[in-house]
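Quick log. Single chain, no ligands specified.
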Amino acid sequence: MMFALPASVSAAGTVAALTKKAQAEIQKKHYDSAIILCNQAIQLDPKDPNLYLIRGTAKFDKADWDGAIADSSKAIELDPSNARLQSAMVPS
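-> predicted structure:
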């Protein structure tokens, strides 16, 4: 399943639009759709740690623990000084 965006949207704009849609899908508990959107965004910007964090959230919410840990770990690997990412790995 692919989500279409207008051809005139820049890569950065596309990543932002995909991210926004993914977050909306998580809110609606449509985790598989959110993961697909994040996958598309990651293909465009594989060095954005927030994309992995968002995808990890969707995986966590659908009880894919290994996937959630892998994505959170990748986010930290990409931005090890980000306290927000570090706190995402600490159980509450």
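The CA atoms of residues 56 and 68 lie 4 Å apart.
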